[in-house]
């Protein structure tokens, strides 16, 4: 790292992560989550999956997706070249591998036909986030007091909102449409209709907060999530995750879905400011013959909601 005079250079970040989970008002837990962000490690990993299918084994689907994706990322991420193409290829391969595993499970267990799961996963490497998303599990960024969703929601609700903005549907019809919560893309053993996996990784900055979550978190409005993150951003990630879960519990919504949250705080180390050495004082000669100007040489060297249906737009198997 080169230290330039008068400038602070960005260094490798550290990631502090914590998770929180709740079954909500459901009879069983269909979310599954794992993360690994060791201090001093070169790579951080987060994988979250929200199963669906109810009696058609939504919890099994999320467990399959979690296990397959996390193990693939953990095994291969440190072996990849440190470029965008290598990590993106790894994420895509992990998602398709999980999809193949679900297909194999359904072939052996026909009663599980119709099960599936969402996927949101991230590889944190240096000051960059590489991510992949299938379904409606949100990936959120809190930066400078603003909450931003990084991934798209693969549902008819998202499509209906776009139609409202285009003047093709009224807001009232969109909000109350019976198919609003139908997903248009899941990891379910068939063709995956839509995958978000950017070619260029997302650049992270000091004090960024990332939230990987199941859609149960969205029973809280974005404005309230932003308020909690703003009030608690100086506290450890464990406190932030706990507080978000408390806010969900305070709602006491009888339809509350499973909730899973992973909070990742980004701390960017900085190199110290370069300091110029003080010039040594020079004495003027007692009897100068040819006075010359003095010189100083400076040398400076940086879960499926109850009753939620899943409508998958299938591509080629």
Automatic annotation (TrEMBL):
<feature type="domain" description="PPM-type phosphatase">
    <location>
        <begin position="14"/>
        <end position="266"/>
    </location>
</feature>
<feature type="region of interest" description="Disordered">
    <location>
        <begin position="272"/>
        <end position="317"/>
    </location>
</feature>
<dbReference type="InterPro" id="IPR036457">
    <property type="entry name" value="PPM-type-like_dom_sf"/>
</dbReference>
<dbReference type="InterPro" id="IPR001932">
    <property type="entry name" value="PPM-type_phosphatase-like_dom"/>
</dbReference>
<protein>
    <submittedName>
        <fullName>PP2C family protein-serine/threonine phosphatase</fullName>
        <ecNumber>3.1.3.16</ecNumber>
    </submittedName>
</protein>
<dbReference type="GO" id="GO:0004722">
    <property type="term" value="F:protein serine/threonine phosphatase activity"/>
</dbReference>
<keyword id="KW-0378">Hydrolase</keyword>
<dbReference type="Pfam" id="PF13672">
    <property type="entry name" value="PP2C_2"/>
</dbReference>
